[in-house]
Amino acid sequence: MTWDKVDTVLLDAIADGAFPGAVYLVTSREEVLAEGALVRQTYATDAPPVRTDAMYDLASLTKVVVATTLAMIAHDRGLLDLDAPVTRHIPEFAGGGRERVTARHLLTHSSGLRAWRPFYETCRSKGDVLRAICRVEPEATPGTQAVYSDLGILLMGEILERLWNLEIAVMARREVLDPLGMRDTMYRPPASLLARIPPTEVRETWRKGLIHGEVHDENTAAIGGVAPHAGLFGTARDLGVFGRMMLNRGMHEGRRLIAGETVDLFTRR
What we know:
This protein has a domain at 63-165: Methane Monooxygenase Hydroxylase, Chain G, domain 1 (Up-down Bundle). The protein has helices spanning 4-15, 61-76, 103-107, 126-133, 150-164, 168-177, 218-222, 236-247, 260-267, and strands at residues 21-27, 32-39, 56-57, 186-187, 201-203, 209-211, 232-234, 251-252, 255-256. 34% of the residues lie in helices and 12% in strands. The two termini are 30 Å apart. The chain is globular. Helix 2 crosses helix 5 and helix 2 (61-76) crosses helix 6 (168-177). It is α+β, with helices and mostly antiparallel strands. This is Beta-lactamase-related domain-containing protein. Keywords: Hydrolase.
């Protein structure tokens, strides 16, 4: 099989101005089938070329690689009851109808909480954000509607930190990234890696100017660049490793990271 059409589709999108460059990777359960890097890091004609080891802001893939995967591991170990109320772990979440929200609701984006709030305008710490979320009333009965919600994943991150008594970045490195050998995936990449990181965008408000090497998500930036819903930077190669682990139902190079039944549970519709 050839993958020339992948190049064609991406080059057409680049020509249309959708993005200035791209990295792609195709993997099976066993191996990488195709990999490529196209054009430049920015729209400037003298911009550096994109390489296959480019580290992009992974944005909401952080929800998958960090929050959801740590939730799977916590469920495996008997730490996380998916149907227990969030208030079991975060008592201050009580009130306003929030007592009915469960961990399962958070992970399936069916908590009834709104999608997003501009916490960065008033919050300067994780504690500030948590207190703000604990004042947000559900807009729908939990379990009745699906609304993709950063608020829900922020709560899941807080639950995980309380279960392990560790910061989310430490848990991610210890439980997911290091076991999978994802050495090019990290929060807050150092300045020494900046040449490998394509800029994300130019902002006209709040953080004005080029966003380069720091998280694009404003709420994550406001609390230091680390969150369960955003903040990771990484490569296509590392994401391919993660994808193979999921395709193999939690197995990585002969070692089990997550129970197969748990992967099935978390990925079924």
